[in-house]
Amino acid sequence: MKIILRLAGVAVAGGLAFWLWTVWFPSPEKQVLRQVARLAATANFSPGDGNLTRAGKAGNLVSEFANEAEIVYEIPGVGGRTLDGRDEIREAALGAFASLSALKVEFTDATARIGPDQQSGEVTCTARVSTGDSKDFGIQELRFQLKKSGGDWLITRAETVKTLQ
Amino acid sequence: MQDTTRSAGATRWLKIILIGRRPKATFWRILALISVTVVTFKFALLPIRVDGISMEPTYHNRQVNCVNRLAYLRCEPQRGDVVAIRFARPERFSAPSQMLMKRIIGLPGERVGFHAGHVYINGELLVEPYLKYSCDWEHEPIQCGPDQYYVVGDNRSMPFEYHMQGRAGRDHIIGKVLL
Q1: Model confidence pLDDT, tens digit, residues A85-142
Q2: What angle do CA B134, B137, B142 make, to 5 degrees?
Q3: Which residues between 3 and 42 in chain B have a beta carbon less than 8 angstroms from any beta carbon of chain A?
Q4: 3-state DSSP call for residue A162?
Q5: Most buried of A78, A109, A126, B65, CB within 10 angstroms?
Q6: Are A155 and A86 in contact (CB under 8 A)?
Q7: Quick one: CA torsion of B10, B13, B15, B17, rounded to 10 degrees?
Q8: Best A30, A105, A109, A144 residue to mutate vs chain B (most B CBs within 10 Å)
Q9: What digits encode the pLDDT tens for the residues B37-66?
Q10: Can you list the domains of chain A with their CATH numbers?
Q11: CA distances from A42 to A80, A97, A137, B151 (A)
């Protein structure tokens, strides 16, 4: 009985140590997933947020992207557009944050793949976006490409994926 | 003395009601029930809640249903089947949290077009008794690939370009909507 208890104690301690290790030293996959999750969290704002908060959020949103980042998106019924570089992304973000009363973005079913060089990664996920007080929402499959720059992961490309062709 | 006996009897009955006469057997039963439930609702029947109006009037907004993930293990999807289609591929062994619910109207290799709100498969009119709302969709025929199914919702009262429809790869079809 004593041996079993000791073994159980060792297993629990081992599990705890492993969990702490993954928390302190996350795998590259976890790091890129966190980066994309942070992007979703930054993009959210509520009607109560003032202009200053919104501008700050737009700035934070842009900082998640690399300088040469590109966003390629297509909205059904509207058409496609490409944003090149941080300046265009900032402009578009500020415009969206100013014109919408609220924005809620959720990324689900996210999966990450890291390149063999460990310096590039790709995340695919499903975005659920709702604006204002409307109960309507849009769902879109997204693909992000990221690169490691100075220890941080930055988004180099974000694009919408056509689930139905 | 009588009160103590009554109290002990009540406690005993409460124990029997909660964990049964044989606690060990109850434990194994609960464990088996949990295992069967988890396996069933994670790998076989996926519980879903309809969010949106694209399948009206067949399926209503906020209606609860299940997706049979085993439906297409032995046979391929058929025309008229209402299926769940995934977006991004989730992690291994996990079910997608967001799915599209659509009806299959075109099978692999077929040409699907819309004229005056009617569906034409390889130039022939498709009879769709499940449609209740009229529509005026016009679209040139689209060729489905060898592994693609043409899917569309039952509610076609909105403009063509605002309705999410098109060709879905076989690997995107998760299963058949049960009810």
Answers
A1: 999 999 999 988 888 888 899 999 999 999 998 899 999 999 999 887 667 788 899 9
A2: 135
A3: none
A4: coil
A5: A126
A6: no
A7: -130
A8: A109
A9: 999 988 899 999 998 888 988 999 889 999
A10: 27-160 (3.10.450.50)
A11: 23, 11, 18, 35
